Task: inverse folding
């Protein structure tokens, strides 16, 4: 895999008849590359999931426009309000006058405090509310770990897609277009390394509780797993197994204290 030297937008990848990923590769100093993904759902009510990095605004907007005319968007699912997920929200709202933002109470409040978005175009979802989008049902899912309390994933019942927000994100040696390019050992170390930075409390959660949460996701039997920070995956069991095995291990040997500090500085 080639090494990243600067953040860059990769080519859009069609996943199936309905879903497309807009992948970005973001270098983390001394530690590899972090995928940063947005997703597009085609159909009667097109939806964008997250809005990417502001520093790549033109590239992200170009990738989106190549997949769909932004004016056709009806929904923007906002997983949470971190900069790598909300970076182009205002620009896309301006280009998509019919689109509304799907978030929860805390997400809407944080958008207001940040001065982004338009409260008149926000639909605040109640806890557990099922969303009907163009004839398909999206069930809210709380991912097994996250770095912002408003985080909101979903399960698309039609295509059996689990969107896990930041969960299952991994540091990788370089840009990856297909998760099959990543060895099991590299994936395991990447998952442990990134979770030790992005969700360090995961190592202290009750192990049985973590196991129940992961088992609940496995019982959903998703055909596809979407993460904001991993290439599209199919084997939820393998991902859950790596996370469970990583419990209490903290950072891998490759994740030095200096590297963790550098990564934390980038994402503050």
Result:
């Amino acid at each position: 895999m080639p090494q990243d030297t600067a953040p860059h937008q990769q080519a859009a990848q069609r996943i199936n008849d309905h879903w497309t990923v807009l992948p970005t590769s973001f270098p983390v100093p001394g530690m590899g590359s972090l995928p940063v993904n947005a997703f597009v759902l085609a159909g009667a009510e097109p939806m964008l999931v997250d809005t990417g990095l502001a520093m790549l605004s033109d590239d992200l907007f170009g990738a989106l426009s190549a997949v769909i005319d932004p004016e056709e968007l009806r929904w923007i699912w906002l997983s949470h309000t971190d900069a790598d997920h909300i970076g182009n929200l205002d620009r896309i709202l301006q280009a998509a006058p019919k689109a509304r933002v799907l978030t929860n109470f805390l997400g809407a409040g944080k958008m207001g405090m940040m001065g982004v978005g338009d409260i008149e175009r926000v639909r605040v979802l109640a806890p557990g509310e099922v969303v009907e989008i163009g004839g398909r049902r999206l069930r809210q899912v709380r991912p097994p770990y996250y770095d912002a309390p408003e985080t909101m994933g979903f399960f698309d019942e039609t295509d059996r897609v689990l969107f896990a927000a930041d969960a299952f994100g991994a540091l990788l040696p370089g840009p990856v277009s297909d998760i099959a390019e990543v060895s099991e050992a590299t994936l395991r170390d990447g998952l442990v390394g990134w979770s030790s930075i992005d969700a360090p409390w995961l190592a202290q959660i009750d192990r049985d509780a973590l196991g129940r949460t992961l088992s609940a996701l496995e019982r959903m039997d998703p055909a596809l797993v979407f993460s904001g920070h991993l290439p599209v995956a199919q084997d939820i069991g393998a991902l859950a197994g790596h996370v469970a095995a990583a419990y209490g291990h903290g950072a891998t040997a490759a994740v030095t204290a200096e590297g963790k500090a550098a990564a934390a500085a980038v994402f503050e």
Notes: The longest strand covers residues 19-28. The domain at 8-267 is CATH 3.60.15.10 (Metallo-beta-lactamase; Chain A). Residues 8 and 56 are 7 Å apart (CA to CA).
